[in-house]
Amino acid sequence: MTSFTQYFTDGGNFMWPILGIFFIGLGFVVERLLFLWNGFRFDEKFASKVADEVSSKGLEAGIQTCSEGMGPVPNLCLSALERSDHGPEEAEKSLDNSGMIEMASMEKNMTWISFCIATAPMLGFLGTVVGMIAAFNDIKMANDISPAVVAGGISIALLTTAFGLIVAVILQLLQNLCLYFIDIQIVSMQKSSILILDSIKEKLRTKS
Prior knowledge:
Blueprint lengths: L3 H7 L4 H25 L4 H14 L1 H9 L4 H11 L5 H19 L3 H33 L4 H61 L1
Helix pairs in contact: 2-7, 2-8, 3-4, 3-8, 4-5, 5-6, 5-8, 6-8, 7-8
């Protein structure tokens, strides 16, 4: 059985840039997954804890707890609590602004992953075209159109297309995993926003 290394070698020079694109895309994917995974440590349960502290101990206690957290939910809660002295409307507006910033932060580098997904198969197709040109030149030089000459050249040329598509499929699956994690955190942010805003309104109501 032919090994992957042999297929890679037979594919020619275009296999190397496709491999490079794969590692670049994989690097961005790993960075995103680590970033998003850290955010799962502080979800709506953390926001519920902050809301309880605001209700029982006051706004300053909630701010102190938020400063000890890390990720979209603690940042959202902190931004709302820091503006709570200006009223619930200002706190809600701060939540909206902070939410947009956090969403942009979560989607950072996703464009580069998409770029790698699109580039890998295009490089594969280009490698195939170049390989086909070389194969037909070999046929011309051999002055023979026997199946052995034609099939061998075309088979080698198609290896770059296959490799490019494999890289694109792997990166696409990993990108979808990142998007799934982002969707989960967006839902968590929305639930957390409701919890913290309700606690601020309740605390300001009791103060007055």
